[in-house]
Amino acid sequence: MLRLRRDVPLFPEGKPKALTLSYDDGVTQDERLIALMKKYGIRGTFNLNPGVMGHKDWLVQRGGEVRHYKFPKEKIADIYAGQEIAVHTMTHPDLVRVGDGMLAYEIVQCRRELEEIIKAPVTGMAYPMGTFNDKVEHVARSCGITYSRTTKQTFTFDLPEDFLTWHPTCHHTEAEMFGLLEEFLKPMDMKGRFLAPKLYYLWGHAYEFDALGQWGDIELFLEKASGKEDIWYATNGEICAYLNAVKQLVYSAAGEYIYNPACLDVWLLIDGEVRRLESGRTIEIQYHS
Ligand SMILES: [Zn+2]
After folding, report:
1. From ligand 1's centre to the CA of 269, what distance in Å?
2. 82 CA distance to ligand 1 centroid (A)?
3. How far is CA 221 from CA 32, 70, 79, 217, 278, in A?
4. Cα of 92 to ligand 1 centre, how many Å?
5. Quick one: CATH architecture of 16-245?
6. Residue 288 banded pLDDT, cuts 50, 70, 90
7. What is the pLDDT of residue 69?
8. CA-CA 20 to 30 A from 96: which of 2, 36, 150, 205?
9. Residue 30 C-alpha to ligand 1 middle, in angstroms?
10. Ligand 1 centre and the CA of 150: distance in Å?
11. pLDDT of residue 194
């Protein structure tokens, strides 16, 4: 019999939270950040520009000069092993201002060059400087991009409504970074009526840790966030693929049967119980009268 039920999507193994990082520009400071991420078991995505790989320049940040060297192409596979790499376009233009042909080329050629490096499809992206509009989104989707990060901070743990405009929780220079983490780490009431999965999505550029003397802060953040049973530590692409699998679930008319057509197992909280929906299988929900 049909009745009101509210199934809550959970992350793999029934975890209610996920944490991910997103760092841009492929700068040599990424190596130190990745070492810290490895130390604490944290994962994330690095958005790279093949057109400027190997370039060496300096940036002025808060009155001081900071090294803005990019890794050469031949080092990319090693440096970023175990993390995800994603499109940040070939040359880092403001995509809203480039011509149509160039727009497509900046995205698809970047994909192609990154795929040659890692010998696997690359479908993630971050908009250079965070600029985009409907056309940019449309072209990105046409180029095979499945998600793209903006620079619009939400200061929440909400899941993205549209993966082509994936807004992060906050940038690592925000004063709220640690306060939000404290809130994120609070245990969740799995029986709570309004339970919703939470995602802490931190973004930035690793050279800013040099410029602002913030290496201690990011290490403290990673340490505090690490080793929690209820958090899934994942790359942006893994989170996108998983949530897309959740969206693909097929429900019977009255909701007693749920078919998982995806190639990933999916977890839901159903009637207060964590249920695993195996890939390619149908589960039956027993209705207690
Ligand atoms: Zn950038």
Report:
1. 38
2. 21
3. 15, 25, 22, 6, 34
4. 6
5. Alpha-Beta Barrel (3.20)
6. low
7. 95
8. 205
9. 13
10. 11
11. 82
Question: How many CB atoms within 10 Å of residue 91?
Answer: 16
CB atoms within 10 A of CB 226: 15
Answer whether residue 212 shows pLDDT above 70: yes
- How much distance in Å is there from the Cα of 24 to the middle of ligand 1? 5
> 245 alpha carbon to ligand 1 midpoint, in Å?
29
Between the alpha carbon of residue 203 and those of residues 8, 63, 109, 136, 172, the distances in Å are 27, 22, 24, 21, 6
Strands 8-10 and 266-270: antiparallel
> In angstroms, what is the span from residue 210 Cα to ligand 1's centroid?
16
Q: How far apart are CA 49 and CA 185, in angstroms?
A: 34
Tell me the CA–centroid distance for residue 196 and ligand 1, in Å.
31
Output the CA 258–ligand 1 centroid distance in Å.
41
92 vs 229: CA distance, rounded Å: 38
Instruction: Measure Cα distances from 76 to 173, 193, 229 in Å.
Output: 26, 46, 31
C-alpha–C-alpha distance, residues 103 and 94, integer Å: 10
- Give the domain ranges of the chain: 16-245
d(CA 203, ligand 1 centre) in Å:
11
Which residues share a beta bridge with 171? Answer: 203
- Give residue 193's pLDDT: 76
Query: Rounded distance, CA 235 to CA 46, Å?
Result: 9
